[in-house]
Amino acid sequence: MNELERRDDIPTTKSLSKMGVSAVGFGAAGIFLFILGSASTLPGIILGGLALIFGIGNLASKDLADKRAGLLITAAGALTVVSALGIPFLAPVSGVLLTVSAVGLLALGVINAIKFFRGLKKRS
Questions:
Q1: In the chain, which residue ranges form alpha helices assigned H by DSSP?
Q2: Among 2, 3, 68, 78, which residue's beta carbon has the most beta carbons within 10 A?
Q3: Which one, of 27, 72, 26, lies nearest residue 52 by Cα?
Q4: For the segment 32-79, what is each residue's pLDDT rounded down to a tens digit?
Q5: Is the alpha carbon torsion for 88, 92, 93, 94 positive or negative?
Q6: What is the per-residue pLDDT for 112?
Q7: What contacts 7, CB < 8 A, 6 or more positions away?
Q8: What is the pLDDT of residues 14-38, one digit of tens each?
């Protein structure tokens, strides 16, 4: 008789899809930051500049989520440009910030992927 699960514990399709999309998005963003952080001088300046321009474009959006993403992309682009230029004090700090951010985003992606697969298991 105790083998019945409560309906509150079973995730909805909407929450599952949100977790799956978040897992992929955070993972892709983490990999992108690793690529930005490892880019050498000229490619780093070009990629960082493109990220900076793309982030500023997102800041013009009316949606709050797009503005937040635009702010993060702008910051990542600025950090990449500073790191690639090799400014004496700022370059190591920006490189560490890019690495820590990339690891954090990958960790969030893994956490959301685990939640997603646990939710799928509960639904089956």
A1: 13-38, 41-59, 64-85, 90-123
A2: 78
A3: 72
A4: 888 888 877 888 888 888 988 988 988 888 888 888 888 888 988 888
A5: positive
A6: 92
A7: none
A8: 888 888 998 998 899 889 888 888 8
Indicate the domain borders of the chain. 14-123
pLDDT for the residue 62? 86
Q: Which of 64, 71, 4, 79 is nearest to 34 (CA)?
A: 79
The tokens describing 12, both together, are 């909805």
Are 76 and 33 spatial neighbours (Cβ–Cβ below 8 Å)? yes
Q: Report the first-to-last Cα separation within the chain, whole angstroms.
A: 19
Task: Take residue 103 and report the two structure tokens written for it.
Answer: 């690891």
Give me the residue label for tokens 């892709």: 28
